[in-house]
Task: inverse folding
DNA sequence: AAGTGGTCTAGACCACTTT
DNA sequence: AAGTGGTCTAGACCACTTC
C-alpha cells in the first residue's frame, strides 16, 4: 500500500493510538470517485490548531504563560514542526497567542499595553490615548430581559449581572456604559470587586473568572442624549452620541458579554481601519 | 568559505546579477560582532513581496488578471517556490491579490461581490444588504482647502475634485457624502461619467483612472443634522447622524481620497468586528 | 493529463534571548 | 552554549480546475 515515501508515513503516524482523535486526510482509492467525498475533511494544521485551542480553553496554559515550544508540540502531536508552526501562525493572527523570538510563544492576555486598545477604539482627537478613570454607578443581579437573553444565548429565567459605569478621559465624563454578563459565569462579581480592581475590566474577567474575551462584534449608531443620559454625562439634552452595542465572545464563539456604550465625541472619535 | 550546504547556495543565487536589487541576508564573519549591524535587513520573502507589489502598482498585471504562477515567479526571482508562497500569502492577507485553488492567483479588484462591502460598512438592521442607488448632487473643481490639502498630502494651490452625492437604500435617503480627490489623478472625471457609471465608485476609479484604493482609515463621530443636511436627507432638524471621515490610500501608503459621510442610522447600523 | 494552489515533511541556517 | 522562533530550501503528495 505504500505509494509514496513522505506523506503516507505521516498519515500512518497520525493514525496511531497516541492521538486517536486526529482526523486523517482522506486517502481515497485511486480511480474511485467514490460516493460522498467526505465532508469532514480538515487539514492537519487545522486539527492541531483546534487541539491547541482546546488546551488554551481548558486552562492547561493560562494567560501570560509560556506554551510548549514548537519542537515539543510537534513531538506531542506526532507531526512535523512546520505543521505546528502553521497552526500557531493562525493562533497568533487570531490574537490567541503572542510569539516572541528567542523566548517562545505565550498565551495572550488582556493585562498588556498592546492589548488595551484592541477593544477600546475611542481615541482623543489630539494627543495620545490614556487609560480612562472608571466610576461604577450600579451593579445588580436580575433575570435576563428577553433581548439580553437572546443575544447571550441563555434563557430568560437565567440570572444576569448588570453593570453601569462612567469612564472619564482627562477628568471629563466621556463614556456611559451598560454591561450584561451571564450570572453563572461571574458568580462572585460585586461592585466592590469592580471598584477595587485597577486596570481593564477584561483583565479582571480573565484573571478572576476564567473567562477570556477573544473577539467582539459591534453595531454603531448615532443617538440623542435623553434627560437621564445627559445628567449622567453632564452634557446638554439631545447631544448627539455614538451608541456602540457590543457582543463579546469567548472560545467556541460563545457570547459571554453584552455591552452598550454611549460615547461623547466632542473631543474623541472612534477609530477604524479598513484593510 | 563554504560553511553550510543549503542556505549559502541561496544567498549566492540571490547575489547574482539577475536581480541586483535584492538585498541579501547579512552574512557576518564568524566571531565578528562587527560594528553597526546593518539596519536595512529584510527577509527575502519581504523583498519578493515588495517586487510583486511594484508590478501590481506599475500595472504589469491589472486588476482582475491572473498573475504568474508561484513556480514561474520562483524562477523569475531565483528563489524557492516556498519563499514566493510566503510573499503571496501576505499579499492575499492584505487583499492585494486573491488566490483560487486550481486556477491561480488574481489581482484583486473592486468589481466583485466580495469586495463591495469592504469599504461600505453600513448594514440594514433587518434583511440583507443591497447596493444603494446613487444620486450625484454636485461635481466641481476647486483649489484644495487647507485641511483637504493637508490630509491628501498636496499643496493648497493644487486643484481637487469635489463630489457631493446622496445614497438611497430601499428608496430612502441614507448617506450624504462629500468626496475630495486630487485633480491631477482624476483628470477626466465629470458628473456625467459618475452618473452613467453603474456600480461601486472605487471600481470606476480603478478601471478608468488607474488608481486603486487598498486601505482606508476612518474617524467616526456623532453629529446633529443642520438645516442644509436635514433638507438633503429629508429628515428632521437635529437628527443624530454618524459622521464618518475617511482617508483612503493607494500603493505606497499614498492618500488619494478624502471622504466625509453622514449616515442616517434609524434603520441601519455601522458594523465592526473586533478581532 | 497537465497545471495551479494547498498541505506536509525534513533539514539547514539565522536572529534573538537566556544560561 | 543551548534553546527559541524566523527564514529558506527541496521534494512529495493532495485538491481543484481546465484541456
Result:
Amino acid at each position: 500500500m505504500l505509494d509514496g515515501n513522505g506523506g503516507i508515513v505521516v498519515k500512518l503516524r497520525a493514525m496511531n493510538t497516541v492521538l486517536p482523535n486526529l482526523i486523517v486526510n482522506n486517502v481515497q482509492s485511486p480511480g474511485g470517485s467514490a460516493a460522498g467525498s467526505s465532508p469532514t475533511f480538515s487539514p492537519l494544521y487545522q486539527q492541531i490548531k483546534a487541539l491547541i485551542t482546546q488546551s488554551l480553553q481548558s486552562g492547561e496554559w493560562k494567560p501570560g504563560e509560556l506554551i510548549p515550544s514548537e519542537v515539543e508540540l510537534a513531538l506531542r502531536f506526532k507531526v512535523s514542526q512546520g505543521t505546528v508552526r502553521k497552526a500557531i501562525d493562525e493562533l497568533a493572527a487570531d490574537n490567541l497567542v503572542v510569539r516572541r523570538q528567542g523566548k517562545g510563544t505565550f498565551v495572550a492576555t488582556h493585562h498588556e499595553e498592546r492589548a488595551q486598545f484592541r477593544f477600546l477604539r475611542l481615541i482623543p482627537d489630539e494627543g495620545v490615548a490614556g487609560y480612562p478613570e472608571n466610576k461604577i454607578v450600579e451593579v445588580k443581579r436580575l433575570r435576563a430581559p428577553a433581548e439580553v437573553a437572546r443575544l447571550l444565548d441563555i434563557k430568560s429565567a437565567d440570572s444576569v449581572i448588570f453593570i453601569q459605569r462612567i469612564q472619564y478621559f482627562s477628568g471629563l465624563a466621556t463614556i456611559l456604559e451598560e454591561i450584561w454578563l451571564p450570572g453563572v459565569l461571574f458568580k462572585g462579581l460585586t461592585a466592590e470587586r469592580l471598584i477595587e480592581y485597577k486596570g481593564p475590566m477584561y483583565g479582571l474577567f480573565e484573571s478572576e473568572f476564567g473567562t477570556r474575551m477573544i473577539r467582539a462584534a459591534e453595531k454603531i449608531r448615532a443617538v440623542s442624549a435623553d434627560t437621564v443620559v445627559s445628567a449622567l454625562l453632564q452634557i446638554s439634552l439631545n447631544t448627539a452620541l455614538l451608541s456602540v452595542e457590543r457582543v463579546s465572545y469567548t472560545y467556541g464563539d460563545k457570547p459571554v458579554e453584552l455591552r452598550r456604550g454611549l460615547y461623547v465625541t466632542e473631543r474623541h472619535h472612534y477609530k477604524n481601519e479598513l484593510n
About this structure: Chain A has a mean pLDDT of 87. Residues 6-7, 9-10, 25, 43-45, 79-83, 86, 100-104 of chain A lie near DNA strand C (CB under 10 Å from a C1'). Residues 101 and 228 of chain A are 51 Å apart (CA to CA).
